Each structure stands twice: as structure tokens, then as C-alpha cells.
Fold this protein.
Amino acid sequence: MDLAIRRADFDDPALALFLTRHLDDLAPTAPKESRHALDIVSLREPSVRMWVGHVDDQLVVTGALVTIAGSNHDEEVKSMRTEPAVRGKGLGMAMLTHLAADARARGVQRLWLETGSMEYFAAARALYRRFGFTECGPFGAYRADPNSTFMTAML
């Protein structure tokens, strides 16, 4: 399965649909105040770098990096989503590897992330652990939340 990763084109209707599905998938997992996924407007902010991955011209995976306010060397992983039909094929790891390489090339020293603590997110947490992330406390503007798991990795 050949994955082509490139910067996101926010005018692409396929990306808008993919991100809408992402938010829809997350809606039943936690109360609104515990869901921290970014919408397409937030992903367009200058502090965000977003990528999309395609297989055979089909959008199958996304990922983004967000500058953490007040830090020159830390970024947050956001908007990691793999199309359900192709999960378990290494596409999430490929995107995460791409994000880390981009961050490292720009001098970022540490990545952070917030993901759900529920069973729905078990595969995501396992992916992050395989990459080298470890659990930590809240970071940036986050506060302790039983619906969240916070993780970090040095690059």
C-alpha cells in the first residue's frame, strides 16, 4: 500500500468530509468539554501544519502539528485519523513518523498529545506508545480530565 503524504489543501471537499467524519466519530466518546479535536477553521490557523495521506488518490489518513503557545521547541500532535476501512495497516504510524520528521527538521525537541482515555482510543494509545510516547500530566492549556490521556515524546 503506497501512501503519498502532502500538505493539506483546505479547499479540498474530500478533506472537509474526512474532518467532519472525524468530529462525528468523536462526538459520542466524551462530553463536549472533554473533546479537543480541531475543526477545519482551527486547522487553518498559522500555528498549525497539517498533512493528508492518500492511497490510490483516496484520502485515508490525516495528522497535524500545532505550536504550543510559549514554547519554541514543543509541538502538539493533532487531528490524527485513519479511515476505518484501512486501520491496522501502518498508515497511522507512517503519518506519525512523517510528523516527527518534519518537527525534528524544524528544531522541535518534544511532541505532546491528548487523546481519549476510553476503550475507543486504545488502538491510538498503543500506536503512540509504539512510537515512543509515554503518559504524562496535562500540558499547555489542558487541565486534568478523566476522559483524557496525555502523552509526550522526545525527538
Notes: The helical segments are 13-26, 40-43, 91-105, 122-131. The CA atoms of residues 52 and 62 lie 5 Å apart. The mean pLDDT is 95. Residues 4-154 form a domain with the Aminopeptidase fold (CATH 3.40.630.30).
